[in-house]
User: What shape does this take?
Amino acid sequence: MARAAAASAERKRIDTHLHLWTPDAERYPASKPIPENLNSDRRGTFESFVKLMDETGISQAVVIQPINYGQDYRYLMAAMSAYPTRLKGMFIADPSVPSEDAAAWVRATAASSPGWVGIRFNPYLWPASAEGGMADSTGKAMFAAAGDLGLVIGFMAFKGLKLHVADIEALLQDSPKTKVIIDHWGFFLQPATGEGDRVIDEDSWNALLQLSKYPQVYVKVSALFRAAADAYPWPSLSDRLAVLLKTYSSSRLMWGSDFPFVTDFAEYGPAARAPEAWPVWGDMSEQERDDLFFNTAAGLLSGQCSESR
Assistant: This one.
């Protein structure tokens, strides 16, 4: 037991999914309200989060631009500038960009900071009238440009992966060299709120397994509170992780917290170690454990998360 605790403490960790914001609305105004309970105490600032990283043994983290700031990246860029070797970022695809300008938009946004490692595709930003959904002409141009630059694409299928898997497959087939991350287990538990009555969406789970046939697809074992109907440490996810290990292998899985939302359900440190309490953890090799918490992310995210490896 002591040996296991020591291994846990020494294990390198990258948090591949979180959001940051600040109550300083004068300098960084939000276009959509930030949850007051996750903001007024400054828990979501980059200064507070880096302290949590130090306390928890997180070497690096990937910050996803929160929807609250829209296309205003000043706060996230300030965070990456303050901690350039520890905080990396993903910006948000803007489907309003004309298709003929989409590749140039990706290149210009990526050039705005050396910390960018990917782009998030949020299907709910695309108009319902978009032909092909995320795989419209703008989406295809952005997706291809990301691959050219070595940026990964993260998909946020909040209402269930089954609704968007056709778009994702169309993009994968159009630009097979672009690497993809499916966020939060494919959102197979709906609604993905982390509380209240929820039901398992097996069609979305099966869609996630279906995407394993594409070698460029990876999965975030993230936002555990959204994917589990039980409470911390969310042991109902153990069997699901076992399936993902067989289907994708540990080399295509990575852990993420979904901070600060996770702090409504557990403290950050314990949440970061929750999988270690699951039955499947005892069946995993040290290689698989290290892949989940560090190696996959370090190798995938443009090589930029591997500086301290």
User: Anything to note?
Assistant: The first strand starts at residue 14 and ends at 18. The radius of gyration is 18 Å. The chain is about 35% helix and 15% strand.
